[in-house]
Specification:
Number of strands: 6
Helix content: 25-40%
Distance between the termini: 49 Å
Largest sheet: 4 strands, antiparallel
Mean pLDDT: 78
Radius of gyration: 15 Å
Structural class: alpha+beta
């Protein structure tokens, strides 16, 4: 019982996920939130909705791909790539496609 509770806590905190291939680290919610805040800031707070398309954990910088929906003053939708430390410090933010 204790082991399964520990696994649930780890997965709920976004720290690790058990896959058929074994344990895989996940990008922290702090890092994902930092990317979304950076994107919204880049567009002056005018993003209607942000959706994480995918994310990939790395010890150095994790990658988070986000779709920004409903932008004002530009393209309606953009997909952006965010490189971020898992602590939440954004290193790079760039548009992938319009």
């Amino acid at each position: 019982m204790k082991a399964s509770l520990g696994l649930a806590l780890l997965a709920g905190m976004g720290l690790a996920l058990y896959t058929p291939d074994g344990w895989a680290a996940e990008v922290s919610s702090t890092a994902k939130s930092a990317c979304m805040m950076a994107i919204n800031s880049q567009y002056g707070g005018n993003v209607r909705d942000l959706k994480v398309v995918r994310s990939e954990f790395s010890q150095a910088n994790s990658e988070v791909i986000v779709k920004a929906i409903g932008l004002r003053g530009g393209s309606t939708n953009e997909k952006l790539r965010c490189l971020v430390f898992n602590s939440g410090k954004v290193q790079e933010l760039r548009v992938l496609e319009n």
